[in-house]
Structures are given as C-alpha cells and as structure tokens.
Amino acid sequence: MPIGDCRLADFFVSTARRDEATVVADLFRQVVSGCAYYNDWARGLEIAKHSAENLSALIDDDPDAILLARSDGDPVGFCISDCDSGLVWLSWMGVSPARRKHGIATALVTELIARAPRRGAHKIWCDSRMSNVESAKVLGRCGFRRICELRNHWCKQDFYLWERPISHDGRASPAGASPGQVGPSE
C-alpha cells in the first residue's frame, strides 16, 4: 500500500508543506465554489474555515493532515483530515474540475488510509452529501461503508456518514471488519 510519495500515472500524492497552504486554500476555493452539492451557506463557511492561515495551523499540528496531488508541479487535488483520539476525520477531498475522472481522488483516499496507522488511528470516518454520487463511488472503492443517513443536518442539508476501519497491524481492514480483522487486499 502506498505511503510517502505515491506516484501514479501523471500525478503524485504527498503531504502538503506549510509553504503550500496558500496553494491548497486556492484549490479548495476553486473546487468548493463550483460545487453544486452544497448550498451557499455551506460553501461560504467551508471556504472561510479553510483559509491559508487555518491550513498552515493544521499542517503545524499534524504533518499528515493535508495530502496534495500534483501533476507537473501543479496542484490538482487535496485530501484534508484531522486525527483525534484514534479516529481520522476525512473532512474534504477534492479534485480540480479539469482533472477529474483520472483516479486522483481514489489515490488521495488510498494514501490517507495508508498513513492512518502511523497517526494512531483505528478508523477513518467522513460524511458526504446524499446527492454526491462521485464521492460515494470513491469511498466505496476505498472500502468505506455507509453507516447512516443524517437528514436536515449540517447547513440544513442531507448527508451520509461513512466509516473505514484500520487494522492493528497497519493494513487497512475491509469495510465492516472489526479492527485487527484483515480481509483481501483491494
């Protein structure tokens, strides 16, 4: 499983450096501004929350918190997470509109899974808008299991909640497996 610099096709995934926080914030703004899944209230809150200053602080707290996909040196995708009490919260993944459908989101989430054990995590969890079919496909490919529906939730929108257990021996557990139970590789 990948860890470190993950090179696939014409892009590679690695951690974002503190000096790249502005680049990540700009890509985040581009992706979220054009995202029809979220209402104006949600987009505004998230863009403000993911400023370069806040992203720099996140990197300072956890160097694995932001993964960045690059192609020819240009940022093309991001995965933003937070680790707390053995859980990794996958808060955002996004890919530049011009680079979608090339496996970048799947590579980002795969790298997040690979890094989870060294962050002390036994599970990764996240939410997605119920209408976001693309994210559901990525999460499913990466072994996440949808665990519930949250209606009229964050910013009065509907979401699915997802989880992905991580085994104690450092390999990703299949969705629905208990920690330590390892299934076939994906």
Describe this structure in words.
- The protein has helices at residues 21-33, 40-49, 52-61, 104-115, 133-141; strands at 6-8, 11-15, 66-71, 74-84, 87-95, 123-129, 145-150, 159-165.
- By secondary structure, the protein is of the alpha+beta class.
- It has one domain (6-165): Aminopeptidase (3-Layer(aba) Sandwich), CATH 3.40.630.30.
- Strands 1-2-3-4-5-6-8-7 form an eight-stranded mixed sheet, sandwiched between helices.
- Helix 1 (21-33) packs antiparallel against helix 2 and helix 1 (21-33) crosses helix 3 (52-61).
What's the SSE blueprint?
Layout (H helix, E strand, L loop, with lengths): L5 E3 L2 E5 L5 H13 L6 H10 L2 H10 L4 E6 L2 E11 L2 E9 L8 H12 L7 E7 L3 H9 L3 E6 L8 E7 L21
Parallel strand pairs: 5-6
Antiparallel strand pairs: 1-2, 2-3, 3-4, 4-5, 6-8, 7-8
Would you tell me which CATH topology applies? Aminopeptidase
Mean pLDDT: 86
Low-confidence stretches: 175-186
Helix content: 25-40%
In CATH, what is the class? Alpha Beta
Biggest beta sheet summary: 8 strands, mixed
Number of strands: 8
How many structural domains are formed by the residues?
1
CATH architecture annotation name: 3-Layer(aba) Sandwich
Please state how the strands of the largest beta sheet are arranged side by side: 1-2-3-4-5-6-8-7
Radius of gyration: 16 Å
In CATH terms, the superfamily is Gcn5-related N-acetyltransferase (GNAT)
Structural class: alpha+beta
Shape: globular
End-to-end separation in angstroms reads 10 Å
Quote the beta fraction: 25-35%
Task: Provide tags for this entry.
186 residues, single chain, eight-stranded mixed beta sheet, Aminopeptidase, alpha+beta, 8 strands, disordered C terminus
